Amino acid sequence: METARADQHSLNKREFEDLCSMVYDYTGIVLVESKREMVYRRIMRRVRAIGIGSFSEYFRLISDPNSEELPNFLNAITTNLTSFFRENHHFDYLKTDFLPEHERDYGQDKRLRIWSTASSTGEEPYSLAITLREYFGSRINNWDCKILATDLDTTVLETAINGIYKFERVENIPEKIQKKWFLRGSGDNSEYVKVSQDLQDLITFKQLNLMHDWPMRGPFDVIMCRNVLIYFDKPTQAKLLGKFMGLLRVNGVLMLGHSESIAKGYDELECRGKTIYVRRR
Ligand SMILES: C[S@@+](CC[C@H](N)C(=O)[O-])C[C@H]1O[C@@H](n2cnc3c(N)ncnc32)[C@H](O)[C@@H]1O
Fold first, then answer.
1. CATH code at 136?
2. Model pLDDT, residue 262
C-alpha cells in the first residue's frame, strides 16, 4: 500500500522539469536533477499538509498565479540555512576596518544604511545589529543607523521578526555578547532566547523577491548578499551584481557568501579580503 502511494506521488522527469521552470520563473533558483528527491520530499510535505490527492493536483493548484498555496510552495523550495556570525570574518572586517573608516569619513552625516538581501531567519541582520551596537556603544544614539533585512520566504521572515531562537543557536556566541543581547526564557521557555529590543529597533524586515523590482533607492553603505547567488545561474548573478552596484555608494562594501565570488570584469569592485568587495567608482 505504502509503495503504491509513494509511486503515485513520485516526481517523474517531466513533472520535475515543469516544476523547475516554475521555480526558476518565480525565484531565479536553478534546481538540478540531483535535487529531484529533495524537492519531492519537500513538496510531499505540502501535499500532505493540505490533504491533496496527488502531485498532479498539487501542480495544477500552484500553476494558478493567484493560488494561496503558491507562497507556501516557494517557501518549501528555498534553503534557509544560516547562523549567528556565520562567516565571522565579515563582521570582524566591519568592526575593525569598515566602521572606523565610515565614522571618520561620514561622521558629519552620521548615517549608515545596511542591506541584508537574503536574511533568512534573521541571524545575519541580528549579527549586524550586534556588531553596530558593540562598535558604536552609546555613540549610536547620535547616528541614524538602519538595517534593511529582506527575504523571499515569508515563513523565515516571521521567525526573524519574532527574534526567538533555540538556545543552541546562540551557545557558540561569546558569553559576554550572549548575555548582553539575548534574553533567556524561563520555565517552559528556558530552552529559548529572545533578541534584545535594542537590536530589533535597528532592523526593518520586509519580504522581497530579488527577481522583482526593488523599491529601495539607496545608497547603501554595506550590502550583504551571502549564500543566495549560488542558487542562481550566471546571467541572473550578473544582473543582480549590476543592480547591487547601482545601490551601493562609492567606497561601500559588498559581501558575498563563502562559495560566491565576483568574476573578473567588475573593475569597479576591489577585493578587500575573502568575499569582501569595495566599490571603487
Ligand atoms: C542559505 S540562505 C542564506 C542566509 C544568509 N544570507 C546566510 O548567509 O546565512 C538563502 C536565503 O535566500 C533566500 N532566497 C532564495 N531565493 C530568493 C530570491 N529570489 N529573493 C530573495 N531571497 C531569496 C531564501 O529564502 C533563503 O532564506
1. 3.40.50.150
2. 82
